[in-house]
Write a structure and sequence with these properties.
Order of helices and strands: HHEHEEEEEHEHEHEEEHHEEHH
CATH class of the largest domain: Alpha Beta
Structural class: alpha/beta
Number of helices: 10
Distance between the termini: 58 Å
Strand content: 15-25%
Number of domains: 3
Strand order of the largest sheet: 5-2-1-6-7-11-10
CATH topology of the largest domain: Rossmann fold
CATH superfamily of the largest domain: Class I glutamine amidotransferase (GATase) domain
Helix content: 25-40%
CATH architecture of the largest domain: 3-Layer(aba) Sandwich
Amino acid sequence: MRRRTLLRSCAFTGIALAFGRDGDAKEKAVASAEFKADVSAASLPIPIKGKRIRTAFVIGKDAVVIDFAGPWEVFHDVSVPGYYGSPFELYTVAESLAPVKVSGGLTITADYAFAKAPKPDLIVVPALVSTPGIIAWLKSASPESDVTMSVCGGALVLAEAGLLAGKSATTYHGALVHMAVENPNVSVKRGVRFVDDGKISTAAGLMSGIDLALHVVDRYFGRAVAERTAWDMEHLSSAWKDPSLNAVYAKRPRLTGEHPRCPVCEMGGEAWASEDLKKLPTEVYQGKKYYFCSEAHKASFDKAPDKYAED
């Protein structure tokens, strides 16, 4: 029995036992989402019945697994009438078919090299090490897609490709200031789970990619289908419905104290307690001494110290 069928069979059996023969409003609402897509509320083009939404996941060196695996699971779990399985056709793309190591040492071989990849309707970009090949492919493929979405540091890759110019965007909370300084033509949003700017959408860090993916499902097939998908995944957060408050975000920690942090990426803190701080690049600004994890981040600070400096 297919995994999806088994899960739903077990789920509805459990509901029936819990609520009795007459059922419950919640059971009816969940069941209706299985069979009816609220396309009237959708803001993305609904594919012709039976035609799948080609969804390309960009893979590269050090790609963060949860950034692409979370949205992959969301799109895989979607169910709407007219499809046997998910309406999303999922595949990975990379510069070549050579195995690549992503976060945690996991090795992945992409389904397609950029040159032979199917034209995508939806693109997912995780945090990864960008390359000229990745940037070139995004510049070519993104304008023709329905949506290009990034997760975490993937927004920096989109910015590098020029896809965020004049748009609103967000990224991992530790990279917000860096993104704002390096990309003055981008309106960087803090304290949000994700930002939907039409054809370009950006999620904050890591798990927020799941919320943005559910939001994309909502845009294609309506709220009921997205809710059903979240329910199937046992995803309890409702942030995908209202991303205006990101509970993870808080005021930046103190940067100069006993255990300083790099003001660009916020690495350090207690993790630097055993380090020889004398070996780190430093800068004094407005009477305060700042430590940097690298010369590159010191150079970023020197471009706009007023934006990086401690409040």
